[in-house]
Structures are given as C-alpha cells and as structure tokens.
Write a structure and sequence with these properties.
By secondary structure, this protein is mainly α. The protein has a single domain, classed as lithium bound rotor ring of v- atpase (Four Helix Bundle (Hemerythrin (Met), subunit A), Up-down Bundle). Helix content is 76%, strand content 0%. It has 24 helices and no strands.
C-alpha cells in the first residue's frame, strides 16, 4: 500500500480516537478500581457492585475504539486500498478522531464520581441507585464527541464511500473536533461535583434533587463546545452539502474550536465550587441560592470563549460568506482563539476561591459580599485574554473586513495569543491565595486589606503576558494596519 498524506492523516485520526479515549478510561477505571480494591478488602461481598461502578468509565474507551474502526473502514485502510484518500478526507478523519478521542478524557471525571459511588454503596446498599445516576452524568461529554465524529464522517461522505470534502472543510472538521473534544474535559469538573452529590445524598436523601442541579452546571461548557462544533459544520457547508473551498475559512474554524474548547476547561473550577455548594446546602438548605451564585461565576470564562468563536464566524464571513477571508485572517483567528481559550483556565482558580467563599458564607452569612469580592479577582486574567482576542480581530482587519496584513504576520500574531493565554493560568495561584484570604477575613475583618494585597500579587504575571502580547502586536505593525 502506498502511504499518501491523506492516508497518514486518517491513520493519525484513528490512533487519536482510540489512544486518547484509552487514556481517559484507563485513568477513570483506575481511580474507581483503587477505591474498589480498598473497599472489597474489608467488604468482599461488595465485589460485584464495585465492579459495576468500575465498568462505568470504560465506555469512553469503547467509543474511541468504535470511532477508530469507523475511520479505518471508511477510508479504506481496512477492506480497501486506502491510496485514494485525499488530504481533505484525511483531515476529516483526523477531526473525527480528535472529537471522539479527546472527549474520551471525560472518563476521568466519571472515575472520580464512580469512586465515591463505590464508597457510598459499601456503606449502604440503598445508595447504589442514586450513586449510579451521579456517575453516569459525565458520560454525556463523550457522547457529544462520538456524535460529532460520526456526523463528520457521515456528511463528509466517508461513510457512504462518496467523499465530498475540501481542504477547507477538512480543517473545519479539526475545529469541530477541538471544540467538542477539549470541552469534554468539563466532565472532570462534573465528576468532582457528582462526587460531592453522592456523598451528600448518602447522608441526606432529600438533598438528591438539589445535588443534581449543582452536578449538571458544569455540563454547560460541554454544550458550548457541541454548539460551536455544529455551527462550524453548518456554516462551512459540511452538513449542507455546500462546502466552502477557501482554506481561510477552515483555518478560522480551528480558531473557533480552540476558543470554545479551551475556555470550557473552566468547568473544572465550576465543579470544585459546585461540590462545595452541595456540602453547604446539605448542612443548611438556605445556602442553596448563595451557593448557586458562587458556582455560576466560573461560567463567564466559557461564555467569553463562546462569544469569540461566534464573532470569528461572523467577522470572517463564515456565516454569510459575503467576505473573502485570507490566510492571514485565519491565522489571526487562531491567535484570538488561543488567547481567550487558554485564559479561560483562570476559571479553575476562580472555582477554588468560590468554594472557599461558599464554605465561609455558610458559617458567617455576612461574609457573602466580601467573599464575592475575592472570587471575582481571578476573573481579570480571562478579561485580558478576551481583550487581546478582540484587539487581534480589530487590528488585523477581521472586524472591519479589511485584512491587509500578510499571512506571515497573521501567523506571528499567534505569539500574542500564547503570551496572554498562558499567563492567564496565573489565576490558579491567585485563586489559592484568594481562598485563604476569605478565610483570613472571616477570622478578622482587619485582615481583608492585607489579604487583598497578597491576592493581587499573582496578577502581575498576567499583566506581563498582556504587555508582551501588546508589544508583539505593536512590533508586527498591527496597530498601524500591518
């Protein structure tokens, strides 16, 4: 068999599908298995029930295997020559593999929940049903990924043996895979929240409904990823049988996928806060409302990512196709996606702070306002990412639909996105300090000022990233039109 570039891309897609999903299932099954081994050493009669829970995170690996087999069959690697696979079809297969494989990492969150389910069931058999409900919730992210993978393979004509992909739609498929795949990591946050729900409902049965509410909150980030993937497939013509041919739209779609997918990782922070909310509501039901307020705050990072993804689709002309995009615009779109997407990881720090705010407010209601002040501080890193993304769209001419920069300048602008995006992860450290600041302020009101000073110290590194991002744009001549 002659190995062509298209065939190579398809094989990588199949490997990504089964490989990444195997990582997720392996870790998830391992987390649950570790608890199962400990429990059954004391309660060997619980072996069967523990095995049921350990099997739950295995499905992601099966989804990855299924996607890999479909890719191999549809591209003719199995049962065919595979030599006629074009680069466009290979890119489609790679996008499908990313969607099914990366979303398979959701099994990690499922393993966290299943582990708690084993412990709760070992205590009381009646806890098994409720625990299984919580444990299957993080499954949806993997289902979204598998769905998008199948849609890509179906509408590209690979499954029917009548491929119709273009290089542009092939790149768009990768954008779809990145959006729904990386957003699947939101299941880790959901698993943390579900674990808290299992522990709470095993102690207090009537908390089950409220615990479910908290557990589904981190699902929204995954839905944003799914939404962006579907919009990309629609506007690039993958599902409408009117595929775009301009490669610039495909590159821009990758930027959209990065924006929505990476920003969705903020759900890990939301899961941490939601778990604390479940615990506080179990202790005091009147904390339900206040806990929800804290829990939804890390949602904003994902909204920023969704917003930039939609703006990119609109301003690059992907939606209306009334603007001839350029490779430079596509590269600048990727830079914007990286900036707002990576900065969205700040939601993890915000979630850590919010969890402390919930616990402290549960003990002292008057701390609600002050705790909110600390909780919003790690938001600034996400705002910097959003700002740089908008500046990139504005000064590269994407917003005005007057792109005059070269493709090389557009590619170099990715440095701005990386600078501000990675520097935005400093919010994780800031969240740790802010969490302690809330506790300190609760102990003594005079501690708030000092705690705020300690908290903002980590902000300087995000400012460094923002400064370098702006200097890069200035050096590239973006502020004067390139």
């Amino acid at each position: 068999m002659t190995i062509t570039p298209g065939l190579a891309l398809a094989v990588i897609g199949a490997g990504t599908a089964v490989g990444m999903a195997a990582v997720g299932s392996g870790i998830g099954v391992g987390i649950a298995g570790a608890t199962a081994a400990g429990v059954t050493s004391v309660r060997p009669e619980k072996f069967g029930k523990a095995l049921v829970f350990q099997a739950v995170p295995q499905t992601q690996g099966i989804y990855g295997l299924l996607a890999a087999i479909l890719i191999l069959l549809s591209t003719g690697i199995i049962g065919g020559s595979g030599e006629d696979i074009s680069i466009a079809s290979g890119l489609m297969a790679l996008g499908a593999g990313i969607a099914a494989g990366v979303s398979g990492l959701s099994a990690i969150g499922q393993g966290i929940a299943a582990s708690s389910g084993i412990a709760a069931t070992a205590e009381k058999d009646e806890n098994m049903g409720r625990s299984l409900v919580f444990s299957v919730i993080p499954e949806t992210q993997a289902i979204y990924g598998l769905l998008v993978a199948i849609l890509i393979l179906a509408f590209s004509g690979l499954l029917s043996g009548n491929p119709s992909a273009t290089t542009a739609t092939g790149l768009a498929a990768i954008g779809c895979g990145l959006a729904v795949g990386i957003a699947g990591l939101s299941a880790i946050g959901q698993g943390i929240a579900a674990s808290g729900g299992i522990a709470a409902s095993s102690e207090k049965k009537d908390i089950f409904g409220k615990a479910l509410v908290f557990s589904v909150i981190p699902e929204t980030q995954a839905i944003y990823g799914l939404l962006v993937a579907i919009l990309i497939m629609t506007f690039t013509g993958i599902v409408t049988e009117n595929p775009v041919s301009d490669i610039s739209y495909g590159i821009a779609a990758v930027g959209c996928g990065l924006a929505a997918g990476l920003a969705a990782v903020s759900a890990i922070g939301q899961g941490i806060a939601s778990s604390a909310g479940i615990a506080a509501t179990t202790e005091k039901e009147k904390m339900f409302g206040k806990s929800l307020v804290f829990s939804v705050i890390p949602e904003t990072q994902a909204i920023y990512g969704l917003l930039i993804a939609i703006l990119l689709m609109a301003f690059t002309g992907m939606i209306t196709r009334d603007f001839v995009a350029t490779a430079a615009a596509g590269m600048a779109s990727v830079a914007s996606g990286i900036a707002v997407g990576l900065a969205g990881f700040s939601g993890i720090g915000q979630g850590i702070t919010a969890a402390s705010g919930i616990a402290t407010t549960s003990e002292k209601e008057k701390m609600f306002g002050k705790s909110l002040v600390f909780t919003v501080i790690p938001e600034t890193q996400a705002i910097y990412g959003l700002l740089v993304a908008i500046l990139l769209m504005a000064f590269t001419g994407i917003i005005t639909k007057n792109v005059t920069i070269t493709a090389a300048v557009g590619f170099a602008s990715i440095g701005s996105g990386i600078a501000t995006g990675l520097a935005g992860l400093s919010a994780i450290g800031q969240g740790m300090t802010a969490a302690s600041g809330i506790a300190a302020t609760a102990s003594g009101k005079d501690a708030m000022g000092r705690s705020l000073i300690f908290t903002v110290m980590a902000e300087t590194f995000a400012i460094f990233g923002l400064l370098i991002a702006i200097l890069i744009m200035f050096g590239l001549g973006l502020f004067n039109g390139g």
